[in-house]
Amino acid sequence: MDAKKGMLFIDFPPVLQLQLKRFEYDHARDIMVKINDRYEFPLQLDLDRDDGKYLSPEADRSVRNLYTLHSVLVHSGGVSGGHYYAFIRPTLSNQWYKFDDERVTKEDLKRALEEQYGGEEELPHTNPGLNMNPLKFTKYSNAYMLVYIRESDKEKIVCDLEETDINEDLKTRLRKEDEDKENKKKEKAEAHMFTTFKVARDHDLAAQIGRDLFFDLVDYEKIHPIRVLKDMPFNQVKEEFSKEFGIPVHSQRFWWWSKRQNNTYRPTRPLTQQEESYTVGQLKDAAIRMNSSELRLYLEVVQENHLTLASRTKDDILLFFKLYDPEKEELRYVGNLLLKASSKPSDIVPKLNEIAGFQHDEDIELYEEIKFEPNIMCEPVDCDVSFSLNQIADGDILCYQKRCSLDQHRHPNVSSFFEYVHNRQVVHFRLLEKPKQDDFSLELSKRSTYDDVVEKVAQHLGMDDPSKLRLTQHIPHLQQPKHQYIKYRSIDHLSDMLLLRNPNQMSDILYYEILDIPLPELQGLITLRVAFHQATPNEVLFHIIRLPKGSTYSDLIDDLKSKVQLSRSDAELRLFQVNNNKIWKVYLPTEKIDAVHDPNVPLHVEEIPEVEKSAGPRDRLVHVVHFFKDNQHIQYYGLPFFFLIREGEALSDIKVRIQKKFEVPDEQFLKWKFAYVAYNRPDYLQDSDIVLSRFQKNIYGPWEQSLGLEHSDMPTKRANQNRHSFEKPVKIYN
C-alpha cells in the first residue's frame, strides 16, 4: 500500500526562517560532509499556492501567506572550516547589501541570489583550440539560510528605527566600541613615538613562585608591559614609579635581566648612573644589542630598617631566596639579600630563620638552584666556605629548608622536589573503546617506567594483574589513538610514550584496554577479527580468534569451524579481505597468517556454494560490487561478493539469480543498473549482453574488473543511511 508522510501548518510566522540542509553525516565514509548541490530559491514565496496545500483544515485562510526574500545567509568553505556572511536588503528595496564582518558593500540581485544557489560553475578555456569541453568546478560558497518577510506584515517589521528603540546597554556598548576604535587609531598613529618595557618586582616573584612557576624567578610573559614615550628619560620613569608604588626614588635600583649560558634568566647587574640618564628608547636599543627581544628590568627596593639603598662595592652580591617545606611540599619566594661575596652562608642562617619564622638556632640546609633544562641541577651549598668559593654570584638563587631525614617525607629535600615538579605529568586515560572521552586522570612522573605506569593504572582500576593492561598512544592532530598499540615493555619511560615524532609535541593522553590474558602471552599469538558470512540466515557473525604465530589459514579454518554453524559438515570455506568495499585479496589455506594479513582489517570467511563445485571449465567466478554515482564519480559501498557466471549466460539470466539471492522486491530491483567496471569506470550492460565476454582476467589476484550493481535510488552521499536487503545484519562474538 502506497502512503505519503508530510506536515500541514495551522499558520505561518510573520518572519519565516528556512535553513537549507548543507551539512550532514555521510554513513559511507563515516564523516560529516557539506552538500554543495544547486538549490534555487525564489525572490517571492507563495505558501498559499495550489489551493493552500501546505495549510491544515483549521488554518485561517483569510491571511495571505505571500513572502518576500529579506536575507540570504551564506557559508563559504567546507565542513571543517569556512566563513559566514550575509546578503540583506534592510528595507526590501531593490538594493542589496553584503555584510561581511565589519565590511558592508552594495551588491546587485544576481550576486545576492543566483550566485548563492550552489552547484557547479563553468569556466571558459584559456586555450579553447585544444579542448572544447567546459571546465567545471564546484562552488563552495552557497546559501544555507533564507529569511522571508510576509507582505502583509512588512510595514510592522521593516520600519524606521528611532533612538528610543535602542536599548541603553547597547548604546553604552556601541559608544565604548567607538572609543576603543578611536584609541586604537590614535595608538597606531603615535606608535612610532612610544615603546614598551617590563619591570619585575618582588611582588611579582612572590605571586608566581610556587604557583605558576617553580624554577627561575619570574615569567615575564605574565608581567604587564609599561608604555611610555621613547624619549622619556629613565630618571623620569623612576619618578613615576615613586608616585604609583610609593617607592622613593633613592630606594630604587634597577637591574638588567638577561639569559645565561645555561638557559636560565637572572638579574645580571644594576644599571649604571650613565645608563639611568638614558631615555627609555636608548635603553631598549641597548637591550637589543644584548640579544634581548625586549627591555626587561628587575627593581630592587631598599631593605627594611634602611632609608636608602647602600652603594654597591665589588664584593657585594644580590641573592634571591626560596623556602621549601618538605611536609607540605610547598615552595615560596621569601625575598632577596645584598651580601658580601667574602662572607659565608653560615653567617646569614639566623637571618634566614627569622625570615622563615623558624627558631633562631634551627638547623637548615641550603641548595643552589643552578638550572632545570634539560635536567635538574640543584646542589647543596657548603655553609662553611665563602659565597665566592661556592661560586655564587649576582642573581643566583638559594633554596633552604629545615634539615630532615631522607625517609621522613615523600620529597625530603629541594632537589628531590624539583625533580618531582620537573617530571610530573598528569595523564588522561581513555578506554580504547570510547576514544573521545576521558575516563580518569593520574599524576605520574615522566621518568616512570612502563611497569610503573601500568601498575598505577591497575591500582586505579582495582586490577590484580597489571600485565593484562594494554596501552596505546594518542595522535594530537587527529585526536585519535595510534594504529598500533604499545608492545609490552617496548617503551622505557612515560615521556617516550607521550612524545611523538615531533620532539616539541607531547601528548597527555593514553588509551587503555583490559585484556583477558597477559599482554606478553597475547603478543605471542595472532589476534584476528573474522567476519563469517552465514549462508542461512543471511547475516554476518564477527568472531575474535587467537592463534599461535606461524599458523596458516588452514589452522584458522579448523578453529572457526568449531565456533560457527555450517550448512553442511563438509562445507569448504573461502577467506578473503575487503578494502574500500572491494575484494582485495583471496587467501589460500597454506599461506601463513602473520606474513600476509593486516590484523587491523577484518578477515571475511564464507562457505563456498555448491553451485561453484559444478562449474564448467569456461565458467567464471567474478567479483561483484555495489556502487552509486556522486558527481559522476563512482562511490563503492556495502559488502562485495563472489558470483559464478556461466559460459554464454546473458545479463537477463544473471539478474534473475541475483534478485533471488538478495530477495529484492521487483519495484526496488528495477532501479538497479548492471555494469562492467574496470579501473573505476562503468560500462553499462544490456539484458542481452553475454557478460563473461567482458572478463579476461584470472580469478585470484588484484581485481581490476568487476560486475557492478549501481543503486540509482541511493541519495548522493547517503550510501548507508537506508538498509537494503543485501546489507547483512551483524552479530559480534568475542
Automatic annotation (TrEMBL):
<dbReference type="InterPro" id="IPR018200">
    <property type="entry name" value="USP_CS"/>
</dbReference>
<dbReference type="InterPro" id="IPR028889">
    <property type="entry name" value="USP"/>
</dbReference>
<feature type="compositionally biased region" description="Basic and acidic residues">
    <location>
        <begin position="724"/>
        <end position="734"/>
    </location>
</feature>
<comment type="similarity">
    <text>Belongs to the peptidase C19 family.</text>
</comment>
<dbReference type="GO" id="GO:0004843">
    <property type="term" value="F:cysteine-type deubiquitinase activity"/>
</dbReference>
<keyword id="KW-0645">Protease</keyword>
<dbReference type="GO" id="GO:0005634">
    <property type="term" value="C:nucleus"/>
</dbReference>
<dbReference type="InterPro" id="IPR024729">
    <property type="entry name" value="USP7_ICP0-binding_dom"/>
</dbReference>
<feature type="domain" description="USP">
    <location>
        <begin position="1"/>
        <end position="151"/>
    </location>
</feature>
<dbReference type="InterPro" id="IPR029346">
    <property type="entry name" value="USP_C"/>
</dbReference>
<dbReference type="InterPro" id="IPR001394">
    <property type="entry name" value="Peptidase_C19_UCH"/>
</dbReference>
<keyword id="KW-0378">Hydrolase</keyword>
<dbReference type="InterPro" id="IPR050164">
    <property type="entry name" value="Peptidase_C19"/>
</dbReference>
<dbReference type="InterPro" id="IPR038765">
    <property type="entry name" value="Papain-like_cys_pep_sf"/>
</dbReference>
<dbReference type="Pfam" id="PF00443">
    <property type="entry name" value="UCH"/>
</dbReference>
<dbReference type="Pfam" id="PF14533">
    <property type="entry name" value="USP7_C2"/>
</dbReference>
<dbReference type="GO" id="GO:0016579">
    <property type="term" value="P:protein deubiquitination"/>
</dbReference>
<feature type="region of interest" description="Disordered">
    <location>
        <begin position="711"/>
        <end position="734"/>
    </location>
</feature>
<dbReference type="Pfam" id="PF12436">
    <property type="entry name" value="USP7_ICP0_bdg"/>
</dbReference>
<keyword id="KW-0788">Thiol protease</keyword>
<protein>
    <recommendedName>
        <fullName>ubiquitinyl hydrolase 1</fullName>
        <ecNumber>3.4.19.12</ecNumber>
    </recommendedName>
</protein>
<dbReference type="GO" id="GO:0006508">
    <property type="term" value="P:proteolysis"/>
</dbReference>
<keyword id="KW-0833">Ubl conjugation pathway</keyword>
